[in-house]
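Cross-check.
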Amino acid sequence: MKRPSENKWECDILKEIISEQTQILIWKYSDEEEFSADLISDEKEFENLKQKSPKRLIEKQMVRHMLRKILPNHKIRYHENGQPYLEPFDKFVSVSHSFPYAVLAISEKKIGVDIEQVKDRIDKIKLKFLHPKEIDWLGRVESGIEHLTAIWCIKEALFKIHSSKQWSFKEFYVVDEFLLDKFSKIKCKVFDKDREDKFLAHLEKIENYYLAITEEE
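Predicted model, tokenized:
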């Protein structure tokens, strides 16, 4: 792939999900791809990522590259809590990356995305993020590492979209029962003693990764 400056910001998108209000781009990095330093506008941030976390630098460049493909006059900025927003602020944005994948979601309404690799180690921490209701229904289906990864992925995407930013996935987040071969619309919610916010999650399986997309119900 040529450098972006020579190629009008074209990129080899692995998958594109489009609806009336939303556009989601998924890109898998290849060693043949090169990026321009001006994708990271903050020179200090660029040099720090280049030296300490080269993969993180690539992920950030991929997201900005995809943004230039669909919204060339916008920039991604970050609030103090790390939540991204667009400048100018006329749409909602959510990003996720798990090397070599990067995901960018642009929508007319609030949206959260997360991508996670299926790894055995998630079994060791399941009791730290599973709600008792989830433990109950997981006991009734043929569940395993993939189910756990999918639930974690949905909760990460919910965290990005929910205004209260409740930290305890175990206490405040619940994902309704779903089967891995039938998960187009999964009900989920974030709640506490005062309120309950309902959402719908969509799951995609990409190689050994799960992608979760959450929107308000």
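Residues 1-9 have pLDDT under 50 and may be disordered. The radius of gyration is 18 Å. Passed to J.P. for a second look.
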